[in-house]
Design goal:
heterotrimer; A mainly alpha; B alpha+beta; C mainly alpha; A: mainly alpha; MetI-like fold; B: alpha+beta; 4-stranded mixed β-sheet; disordered N terminus
């Protein structure tokens, strides 16, 4: 039996145990599809305003209705997938690079590396995290880059903690000794042997962070520190539409809100499923 | 388990106990006597002479302090009470005698401060001295009417004050009726002043020490201000509302919900769309009044390319989606200042509409003539503090300008930084609103167009011709020379509309939503609420 | 025990210093100019410069920092520009409001999440288990301000069950005499049951909003912990000895499973305290969250610095309490510590 075969079998077993994970995975594919191809297949231009048709409820022409400037909400929600997906992925890549590497280095080498990384991590943890994100975006300017940076910074301690714990456990493991004996330098061992080994555990964390990154961007938009208009992004669409709930135009906030919820939901469940897949002991 | 049951029952009990205070008879009566105002933000200082006092603070000052004179009311453009800028009413003064280079006021003999101390001429002088000495906005506003030195304020006797003019200025008397020259209880403040703080700014920040119709009995910064009627007020007929509670509710949706459910009495702080809908629903009274001397405009920095080229500015003026803005952003609640007929004569009035309207073809042609056939890139900035209106204006403008090749990135500037950014005079393209308390065309132009380059001349506009007209108009007004005045006003308006350093969009409306049983709203130049005329029930 | 406390406090000091420095730098990096704000809307360049000198903002950064630290040592957190009040007073007035709301939300959350987690663990693998996971995750997948606004719309606007979202108390009630600053407790101390009901009814919607958001981590941790404990030896022994299921689950398993849950609670509490800024904005709650947010948007340094410092100290205290609690509950931990 080849290795991939057994992985697939294991995966199928896990999915059958937990249909929710299968559902989450299907949702994930749908989101990825919308992110990649969305802008090419939407019926209307997400940026085109039409002041003759503002605040229309869902209809045949506009599946999700129109917003305050007459833009088609369905098109905007689909096109926003790309930006939110991009925010989610870049946030995790950044925090993985920063936090994951810092974590395994501190867990593996210990000593001063551990102390310094620990200090930085603790200091960040001492801040109310959302306010820190707000502060970073307010200070540096509300661009997508800064939002991603802020999300990465506030998740840094968490990644450090997980990576450090994993690297620590494996520090004196057999395969590491073997790698050293074969003449690999410490850094090589770290990057070529430890890192791939902890990937599965980190993947779980990664998918949870993806959901969190999108929620963070939404919260920042509500305060006014989100992406710049007229870019479609779920969070800012929900924030803008919230004012219209009382006046009865529920569709402006609801559809982006549902999309956002579905995406975060999907990432969270995927995280749970991945955890079941890679580390049955930690199954929650 | 027991704990869980307790919690569950407490939750259930709490959820059903939502009944508003109306169910209790004592509370019902007090609800009837109290006016509840809701707005997004509140005052940061109760003293208009204070350092950094924000606009909500002006409302407190207006209602809790008296001035020598105020304005009579007339019927405004919408049939509602509107302040009469030409007719003055005696408030603290009983009598006003205009001399050649001075004006003398006799104070009301029975005027008293809220603590019972009679109002004397020395209080008036002390207060006016304070206004011109503390610096910042109050001093600036006093200077707008040529009131600059304490020497101008003279105590003739216990009951008589004389204000000497520094020069003949038509704006001096109206400037005495604005919010800033309010009269404070000088003895009380001096008791609470210190060497480091001789004007008692710290004390007056937290306490109202005037003779006005209301006094502040409680202020929780950021949450609420509670006013009670001062029954000793002599400035006019006794106000009908005994208690006013002003609550801060940050969410606009919640403010609307409160009004619709009858849990709040007044708000003027709602999106235009809500005002239009509430009006058509008919459950509330909605009153809309145009801003006196106020304009929302698109401004350009005329010192630097590409907006230093008048053809570019005119191209922009042809490319703005005026009607779209009126429809989608304002829902019709504003007076358009665009699209005047080509043969319309210039009036002696301000604001007045310009002759530009949306015409993309003409705009493209002008861009080509100006040497930018392929357009250029720039940023359009706005004040996030008024994002409800500013953001869609910028989005629509960005879309429209893209059609003539101008690619704009939208730059959101947080409210607290907006003034700083404007002051730098480096923003190439932006939208802003300006309005003046003194409703005279030359007043607007001195601040916004004159080469003296005040901070309100956000475009850094310099034009000798315009300056000549403005200076001419000011002198003519001071001398009562009507013919020259009218010629000069028409002159500077024509010049401004030929050069187009700023493109007026519309004259905004002040909108107020009130419960059906609330009446007595009157429009004032400061656009804040005057509690003294409000009636409930 | 005392040694543990002292050691932790000592370790916390460098963190606090780091927090102070970073906050200082961050607020100075904010784009606003307090001098321009103070000088007022009509000030020209000279007037602004004058105010800048008066406020000490023209001095080089290190000097400003020293001045800040000196004031801090004297307990002076500066004044807020937007409200004009001293920061210390404002924080002291607003902190109980946020704390009461957060605790209330946490109580709601625990009362739902813990039973949910136990149920999911006991019925592991069944549809109940999946349903619990879905419900818990759904709560945390919506932006918290959206949940809040929806609840206001449904329960206040449409149904009228809930009172107006006007903050801690309806306008016609005055606050109870201050003992703890928690209206629920203070009103009971003052024996004013009408006030108690009024305060409670205002707390429900925002509390539920916060509670929904923190369901997931607590439920998840309870489930995981219960699962681990249910599979352990002593539970098997208890079952084998013939004890009924209820006693086994609640008396034996639950008590032992609570330890990691308590740690999670601490994490969740501190997370909520920072996250309730959005809830406070929606419900006009006069807490430190809304205070800090408004100050941040207005580039108002002092409240932001004061808020962050207060939070940091609170976290240290909180983590300490949790560790002590942990040590009290679990003797094994005490021996190591």
């Amino acid at each position: 039996m080849s290795e991939s075969n057994s992985v697939l079998r294991h995966a199928r077993y896990v999915v059958s145990e937990n249909p929710v994970t299968g559902f989450a995975f299907a949702m994930f594919l749908l989101i990825a599809f919308a992110a990649l191809f969305g802008p090419y297949i939407v019926p209307h231009d997400p940026l085109a305003s039409d002041t003759a048709a503002t605040l229309q409820p869902p209809s045949i022409k506009h599946w999700f209705g129109t917003d305050q400037l007459g833009r088609d909400i369905f098109s905007r929600v689909v096109v926003a997938t790309r930006l939110d997906f991009a925010i989610a992925i870049s946030s995790v890549i950044l925090v993985f690079a920063m936090g994951g590497l810092a974590g395994i280095a501190s867990g593996f080498f210990g000593g001063w590396t551990d102390r310094i990384v620990g200090r930085i991590s603790d200091t960040i943890m001492a801040f109310p995290l959302f306010v820190l994100a707000m502060g970073i975006v307010a200070a540096l300017g509300n661009t997508v880059t800064n939002i991603v940076l802020a999300t990465a910074v506030i998740n840094f301690p968490l990644y450090v903690r997980v990576a450090r714990a994993e690297a620590n456990v494996r520090r004196e493991a057999g395969f590491v000794q073997a790698a050293r004996l074969s003449g690999n330098g410490e850094f090589r061992v770290l990057l070529m042997h430890i890192l791939p080994n902890i990937m599965p555990i980190m993947m779980v964390q990664v998918s949870l962070t993806m959901g969190y990154a999108i929620l963070n961007a939404a919260g920042l938009s509500f305060i006014g520190l989100g992406v710049r208009p007229p870019t479609p992004e779920w969070g800012i669409m929900v924030a803008e539409g919230s004012g219209n709930i009382i006046s009865g135009e529920w569709w402006i906030a609801l559809f982006p809100g549902l999309a956002l919820m579905l995406a975060v939901f999907c990432f969270n469940l995927l995280g749970d499923g991945l955890r079941d897949l890679v580390d049955p002991q930690r199954r929650t | 388990m027991k704990r869980r049951e307790f919690l569950k029952s407490a939750l259930a009990a709490g959820a059903t106990l939502s009944a508003p205070a109306i169910f209790s008879p004592a509370k019902a009566q007090s609800r009837q006597e109290t006016l509840l105002i809701v707005s997004e933000s509140g005052p940061n200082n109760l003293d208009i002479h204070g350092v950094g006092t924000n606009v909500p603070g002006y409302e407190v000052s207006w209602n809790c302090y008296d001035r020598l004179i105020s304005h009579e009311m007339k019927t405004g453009p919408n049939g509602q009470p509107y302040y009469d800028k030409d007719k003055f009413k005696m408030e603290l003064a009983d009598d006003m005698k205009l001399g050649d280079m001075s004006v003398t006021f006799k104070l009301k003999k029975n005027a008293v401060f809220q603590d019972g101390t009679p109002v004397a001429a020395k209080d008036v002088k002390w207060s006016l001295d304070r206004a011109v000495t503390v610096g910042g906005f109050p001093t600036f506003q006093m200077a707008a009417g040529s009131l600059t030195k304490p020497e101008q304020f003279v105590v003739v006797d216990d009951n008589t004050v004389r204000v000497d003019f520094a020069r003949k200025d038509r704006l001096t008397i109206p400037d005495l009726a604005v919010i800033v020259p309010c009269v404070l209880n000088s003895e009380l403040v001096k008791k609470n002043a210190t060497e480091k703080d001789p004007w008692g700014l710290d004390y007056v920040k937290q306490n109202t020490v005037g003779s006005g119709a209301y006094k502040v009995v409680s202020w929780v910064a950021g949450t609420e201000v509670v006013f009670e009627r001062n029954d000793k007020w002599t400035g006019g007929p006794a106000p009908k509302v005994r208690k006013v509670i002003w609550r801060m509710v940050p969410s606009a949706g919640n403010r609307r919900a409160l009004l619709e459910r009858g849990d709040a009495d007044i708000s003027y702080d709602l999106p235009n769309k809500d005002f239009v809908e509430l009006k058509s629903d008919g459950k509330l009274n909605i009153i809309s009044t145009p801003y006196s001397n106020g304009i929302q405009y698109i401004g350009m920095n005329v010192k630097n390319p590409p907006f230093d080229n008048p053809k570019v500015r005119q191209a922009v003026a042809y490319a703005i989606p005026y009607q779209k803005i009126m429809d989608a952003v304002l829902f019709g609640l504003a007076k358009p200042l665009f699209g005047a007929p080509a043969n319309a004569p210039t009036e002696v009035a301000w604001p007045q509409p310009h002759k530009f309207n949306t015409n993309i073809e003409k705009a493209k042609a002008l861009m080509a003539e100006a040497g930018y056939p392929n357009g250029f890139e720039t940023t359009i900035s706005f004040d996030l503090g008024f994002a409800g209106v500013n953001e869609p204006i910028c989005v629509l403008t960005q879309e429209s300008l893209a059609q003539i090749g101008i690619k704009c990135t939208i730059n959101k500037v947080p409210g607290a930084n907006w003034r700083t950014e404007l002051n730098k005079k480096a923003l190439p393209l932006y939208t802003n609103v300006f309005s003046g308390w003194l409703d005279y065309p030359e007043y607007f132009f001195i601040w916004c167009y004159h080469g003296k380059n005040s901070i309100f001349n956000t475009m850094s506009y310099q034009s000798k011709e315009t300056d000549t007209f403005i200076d001419g108009a000011v002198t003519a007004a001071a001398n009562g020379d009507k013919a020259t005045y009218e010629k000069d006003v028409e002159g500077f308006v024509d010049q401004a509309y030929a050069d187009m350093p700023r493109i007026p969009l519309y004259q905004p409306y002040v909108n107020v939503a009130m419960q059906k049983n609330v009446s007595g709203y009157a429009y004032w130049f400061h656009r804040r609420l005057d509690y003294r005329t409000l009636v409930k029930g | 025990m005392l040694g543990l406390i002292a050691k932790r406090l000592l370790l916390a000091i460098p963190n606090l210093i780091g927090v102070v420095i970073i906050t200082f730098l961050l607020t100075r990096a904010l784009p606003g100019d307090p001098a321009a704000y103070f000088a007022g809307p009509a000030a020209n360049k000279e007037a602004i410069e004058q105010i800048r000198v008066k406020l000490g903002l023209d001095r080089p950064l290190p000097e400003q920092f020293v001045r800040y630290v000196k004031e801090l040592a004297g307990g002076d957190l500066g004044n807020s520009l937007t409200t004009g009040q001293p920061v210390v007073t404002e924080i002291r007035n607003r902190l109980p409001a946020s704390a009461e709301l957060t605790l209330f939300g946490l109580v709601i959350s625990i009362s739902i999440a813990v039973p949910l987690g136990i149920l999911a663990a006991v019925k592991q693998g069944s549809w109940i288990d999946h349903a619990c996971r879905v419900v818990a995750t759904a709560g945390v997948s919506l932006p918290v301000f959206f949940t809040g606004l929806l609840l206001v719309y449904v329960f206040y606007f449409l149904l009228g069950w809930s009172p107006a979202p006007l903050g801690r108390l309806d306008v016609f009630f005055s606050a109870p005499p201050q003992v703890t600053g928690f209206y629920l407790i203070d009103s009971l101390i003052a024996r004013d049951f009408g006030l108690f009901r009024a305060a409670l009814s205002q707390l429900i919607l925002p509390g539920v909003t916060l509670g929904v958001f923190s369901l997931a981590p607590i439920a998840r941790m309870t489930r995981a912990s219960m699962l681990a404990v249910l599979g352990s030896d002593f539970v098997r022994t208890a079952r084998a000895s013939g004890l009924d299921t209820r006693t086994v689950i609640l008396t034996y398993a639950f008590r032992n499973a609570m330890l990691p849950v308590i740690t999670t609670l601490g994490m969740v509490f501190s997370f909520l305290l920072g996250a309730n800024v959005l809830v406070e904005k929606v419900f006009a709650w006069p807490g430190i969250g809304s205070y800090a947010v408004e100050a941040l948007i207005a580039s108002d340094f002092a409240p932001v610095q004061g808020f962050v410092l207060t939070m940091a100290i609170l976290y240290v205290a909180l983590n300490l309490i949790i560790d002590v609690l942990y040590g009290l509950i679990d003797p094994r931990v005490r021996l190591e510590g």
